Every structure is written in structure tokens, then in C-alpha cells.
Amino acid sequence: MTQTLADLGEAELLRRLARFAPPGQLEDDTAQLQQPTADLLINTDVLVESIHFSDATTASTDVGWRAVAANLSDLAASGVDQILGITVGLVAPAHTPWSWVEGVYSGIGSLLQDSGGVLLGGDCSQGPVRMLSITALGTLGTLRLHRSQAMPGDSIVVSGAHGLSRLGLALLLKDPSLLGITLPGSLREQAIQQHQRPLPRLDALKSLVTCKPEQLPWRAGGTDSSDGLLQAIDCLCRSSGCGAVLDKTKLPQAEGWPDGPLWQRWCLSGGEDFELVVTLPAPWAKAWMDEQPSCRQVGVITDQPQAIIWSDDNTPVVAEGFAHYGTS
Amino acid sequence: MTQTLADLGEAELLRRLARFAPPGQLEDDTAQLQQPTADLLINTDVLVESIHFSDATTASTDVGWRAVAANLSDLAASGVDQILGITVGLVAPAHTPWSWVEGVYSGIGSLLQDSGGVLLGGDCSQGPVRMLSITALGTLGTLRLHRSQAMPGDSIVVSGAHGLSRLGLALLLKDPSLLGITLPGSLREQAIQQHQRPLPRLDALKSLVTCKPEQLPWRAGGTDSSDGLLQAIDCLCRSSGCGAVLDKTKLPQAEGWPDGPLWQRWCLSGGEDFELVVTLPAPWAKAWMDEQPSCRQVGVITDQPQAIIWSDDNTPVVAEGFAHYGTS
Lengths: 328, 328
Hints:
Helix content of chain A: 25-40%
Mean pLDDT of chain A: 94
Strand order of the largest sheet of chain A: 7-9-6-10-8-11
Oligomer: homodimer
Structural class of chain A: alpha+beta
Radius of gyration of chain A: 21 Å
CATH topology of the largest domain in chain A: Phosphoribosyl-aminoimidazole Synthetase, Chain A, domain 2
Low-confidence stretches of chain A: 322-328
CATH architecture of the largest domain in chain A: Alpha-Beta Complex
């Protein structure tokens, strides 16, 4: 018989979850963290069942992994040096199998093991749907990326291909919009991997920091593309009072993905790509692309507030939205 | 017409929430916190609609207040010095009125203004029920309270009366178990206030620290009674490998509350009292009670692992449980 959270009771649930944290870590009302050696970066992300994940497309271990990946991606897009740890707020119905919760925490543990940081603490509650709220903490490194630090003339560089996570979801759901499109097996695998086990681009941040030309100041605009590439560029433009010109021919396409409206739409607004989107002076951009082969320049920042246009015909760049709220 | 979150859209929602944080605070993917001057204490608490709050008993401003109070109470029970701030994970259906969310953040802001700390950041998502996950950060002061630091012979001292929050809830729900019980108006008001606007006992922690007799080391056991007084004592005993003897005549009764089974049950397991429950050497206990008139000694720690008994007849102390999961 499946063992549920109701079968375990809260005390036993907490005892089992404690195995995913350092010994004694979950023993007190609060977690204690040694005085950090630098400023802190803090981020909270919420994932809700049937909005951000579902049993149909995401194994429990992947739910845990992705939840942490979303947080660490935000830390990477802000200039984190060392990941310190996370707290987890877990909501789940009493009939939830323990094996599902175990899977989530095991996925959380896997990514923390790869990226540094520990499970610091958290809270559990019963509720009508499964929900995870994760808060991640890290120390700030040399470069603080801000959304508001884009400047006209900056190159817009992304750390990798876009649209893959959305493609992976479509493949898992056998989405009819894929009918008649031939995709190589390697791309299919890559897309599903990107959807289920996205990697926060801590590696790309590291190379961005190490490759800065000496004469340039520590100034770059940055965010991540968790809500889609176009929304990331829009955020940078709005916060910086700038605009952007994008080059259709330089959109970051994964190998083997045929051109077409589907590709372009998911590249711009598929979402959950978890790549860095950075605006920076051209010499630094070049140095970064040399250092990090997955990086691509997609356009340039302009002084036209909030106008994001194509370079070939000056028409506005539009894409279906990624709205957490609202009907559009 | 009521304005809902769907009417606003996510961008406008975030713009409005930003008013509750320092200028520019919510602008980036992450919050930045100046390098702390001491070790950090971190706590996450989750509140779910119809489990932890409901429109019937809790105004939106009180939902926000109580959510922060629960977190700060945990920080107080660990020895916090300065409250730094909180992040908020908010889940709500698209049809939620903006006025409800505004109320929640206004309640959050009120308690932060009283206790120190700011809204650092957060995340919002649509979901089938309202849910708040708050993570609070503070610096550790001179005294680190641990659950595992109780020692046989310690006095068990609580920072105030218990059962009031449960009584307040019963009054708001017109609970039939109150039929035939006469309660003075002042007690009714106090109980409802305690349910809707509990105060984290940062004041009691402060006096606990300042009144320590010089010859004693900085060693005391501590937790808060958010899950009820008996569960708090049980936690201290389990973590410390000790037991406790409680004195029925010294249970922390609010003025005007008549004796009886209802009083004793809610005192022991009503929950959400948010008082400090501390075990400490007798001279320190006396000094604390002298300094802080709301403090009461309810018993003594023993070397009988996990046995919590009454002093008059040595029978086990039992009370209805406060189980987040499970049927009992």
C-alpha cells in the first residue's frame, strides 16, 4: 500500500526530511548561517502544481531539481559567488504519497550537491494542491548584475539556445503543434533534458566575470530568461529606460531545429530557459562569446525607450505572452 | 466593480507590491542584503487558506500580520538580535480581489514597521487557493536558544498566558463549546486581539538576555509555542533527551478565564500562542520573571526522557494534538 503523508504524521515527515539536510540542521525553530563573507543575494520562487509542473510531464525528482534551478538561475543572473543554501516551504494534500515528497527532496539534493549549498530549513503544511516555495541565499561576487544597468550601444548576449524547454514540454505532452515537423533525435533529447533538468548558468556567470576587459568598469545589465527571452529583454529595457534592436538571423537556435513560426515563437516566449540575458559593452561581449561557446549576441540596446524592434524592417518584436495572471 | 488580480496582470501587480518595499527593492531578480554583522537566523513558514486563516475570522491585514508574526516568533525563540527582512511567496486565484492582496501586504508592513526589517522580495503565482510562504532573516544576538539545550533541574518558564489565540478563534466562530461559560469582556477582547494580531515576543527575549546572572553561562533551551504549549515542552524534552514535571496550579492562565477542562485543554494545545518557552537555571528564571511580569514558571525539567507528568499525581500530561498531517 502506498504510504501517504497522513500515514506518517508530521513528526515522522520532518524526521525523514531531516535526512536531506546536514545533521541537526532541521532541529531548531530557525536555521543558523555563519556570518557571510560578503553581501547576500536572496531569492524566492513559487511553483504550483498544474501551473508549473504536473505528474504528466515531470517526475518528482525533476520537480525538486527545477524548483532549485529556478532560484539558482535568479542568483546567477544577479552575480552570485557562492550558493549558501535554500529553505523549502512545502504544501501538499494529506493523501500525497511519501515517495513523491522523497523524490522532490532527492531532486533538490542532487542540484544542491552539484551547485553548492545545503537544505537550511523549511516548513510543511497540508493544502489542496502541491506547492513549493523555495528561498535561496548566496553571497555576491565581484559583478552585481542589475536589470537597470543596460546602456545604449550595449550588446545583448544570451548564454545559450532558447525555446528548448518549451519544445521539451510539447514533446512530453505530444503537442499537436509539432505535427509535420521533423526533429532530430538529439534535439528531442536535449529539449526534454532542458525541460526536466535545466542547469542554472553559474558556469556562464563565472566566465562573464573572468573575461571582463581590464579597462571596462564592472557595469553590465542582466536578468535570466525564465519568463522567456523577449520578456527578459523587455525587463532590461524598461528598468534601464532603453530599447533594443534584435537580429532575426541571430536568434539563439538549437542545432537541428528547423526554421519556422513555431521555432521563433518558442525562442522568444517559450519560457523557462534559465539562460543569462546580459547587456554589456561590445569588447566584453566578444570576450565572453570567445570564452563561452554557447553564448550568442541577439541584438543591441538603443536609446529608444521600450521600443524592441527587428533590425531588418524596424517592426516591433511581438510574441505570445507568458502571463502568470490575466487572460491574455 | 471589484478589481481582481486577473484585471491587473502580473506587471501591474508587481508594481503595486513594490510600494510596500524600499524604493527599487523589487527591481531585480534577487534582493541584496548588506553583509550581516553576525551569524544569520533564517526561518520559513507557510500559511494556507482554510487551514491557517479564513475570511470568516481573519481580515486580510491580519493575515499579513500573523504570517510575519509566526516567522518573527521563531526568530525570537532562537535568539535574534536584529530583524533584517522577509521575502513573500504569494499564491492566489486570478479572481482574488486586489484589495485582499493590498490588505495582506499592508498587515505585513505594519508588523515590520514595529519590529524592524523590510520587504526584501518575493514571488507571485496563480493557484487554486490563497497561500503565503514567508522567509524571515535576522542576525543572531548574544544568546543562541536551542531546543536541545534543556538540562535536568532547569526551570520551564513561558513568556505569557496560553490558550488565548484558540479562545479568540472560538469567539470569532461562535464555537458552541463556549456555551454556558461566562467570560469578562476584557478577556474576550484580549483573546480576539491575540488571535488576530499576535505579537512576537522580541521584548521578552531582550529581557531574557539582559537579566542573565553573570556567573551563569549562555546556555538555555528554547522554542516558541506556535503549535501549543505541550508540544513546545515535548520538543524541548525530545531534543534534549529529558522529561518534565508540570504544575497544574501554575499553568499560565489569563485573568478572568474560569477554571475547567476547556481552559486546560486550550492552554496546553490551543496553539498559535507565539510565546517563548524557555528552560534555564533557577536563578536566571527568577531574574527573568522579576524583569518580565508576564513570565510564569510552569514546571521543571527532569532526567526522565520524554516523560511529561503532572507534579501532583505523577500522571502523564495529555492533550488533544495539533497535527498538521494525519487524522488524530
